[in-house]
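As a warm-up, study this chain.
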Amino acid sequence: DYTFTYGVVSGKGRNKLLATGGYSISDYLQTDASINPGNSGGPLCDIDGKVIGMNTLINGMNRGLGFAIPINMAKEIGAELIAGHKIVRPWLGIRIETLGDDPSIRDLLKGADKGVVVRTIEADAPAYKSDLRPFDVITHVDGAPVDTDSQLQHEILKKKIGQNVELTVWRKGQAIKIPVKTGELPNEIARASNEPIQPGQPKQEDAGKFGLQVQDLTKEVAERLHLAVQQGVIVTDVADNSLAAQQDIQREDIITEVDGKPVTNVPSFREALTKADPKRGVLLYLDRKGSKTFAVLKAGGG
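Now compare it with the structure written out below.
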């Protein structure tokens, strides 16, 4: 038996629905035509009966919305599969967001009007081997302006695997050029499972106003947790509903810098926090299981 439902296309270019290692299809068609489990792969047609997309997924939070891959993308992928080719995508290995999506970081990025903020650089990813850093704002890819995360992704998808790409980046008030070579998007990004921290030694520092506790990252702790980074302080506890928890700071994160100042031990961490302005926002650079990321602790929650 066949079923037919109808509705309207209520959105184009929808993204951030599925993601793997910072990559997500950014061109979904959104429709309120009923799409049920088992309908994936079926056609989405216009009023003239022309196929405009392939039904793919439903919104688990709202059963009234469904999403389809645009037909041009489906035809392109289908032709590759029929020819026996493997579908591969170029990848930088960064997690990104459009500048302005997170109001808590605006005060720390004055002077940057448009662009894409680098939230995280995945461990051993192509971008990890470059000079790109978390909190950088990417404004151009090979000279083409990128104002949103979707535009940046589109520009990277145009590249070939192994191709050199020049990123224009805003960092600390200056525009700099950073070369990166694209890699192949992996099917799955493996993450090592770290052992729990043994509290007590060395002495922990309680950063009470931010809701986190840290201790020196000793050689013994780094070896036990199989950490590549050798300098900083390690987060041993995060209080519920604290500023640190709101910014998703996690146990075993390594804090390597505070507002651009290197952190070598608990005293240097304490000194950097003393000089920081929580109302403006305190920028922490973090190493998380090999990936590089950042968090902004701002009084008032954002």
